[in-house]
Amino acid sequence: MKDIVYILYVVILGGIAVFTGEIVTFVMLGVILIALHNILKVQQEISRKLDRLNQREKE
């Protein structure tokens, strides 16, 4: 369900960008959002690994 909302959000922003002539801004925001999403995934992976490591130490 989250993916559908994100896709709808991008389509709406893309339409607004086309009508206002801000295509470059739209593309740059897309690049920034992709970078932030990648950073979030790496942080979540690190957190999972640390949780597993902490649980092993407690045993």
Topology:
Layout: H1 2-20, H2 23-58
Please tell me about this protein's structure:
- This protein has 59 residues and is an all-alpha fold.
- The protein has a domain at 24-59.
- The protein contains two helices and no strands.
- It has helices spanning 2-20, 23-58.
- The longest helix has 36 residues, at 23-58.
- It is elongated and about 60 Å long.
- The mean pLDDT is 85.
- Oligomeric grouping of the chains: single chain
Biggest β-sheet description? none
- Runs in which pLDDT lies below 50 for 5 or more consecutive residues are none
Question: Pairing-aware structural class of the strands and helices?
Answer: mainly alpha
Main traits of this protein?
59 residues; mainly alpha; transmembrane helix; membrane
Q: What is the compact description of this entry?
A:
With 59 residues, the chain is mainly alpha-helical.
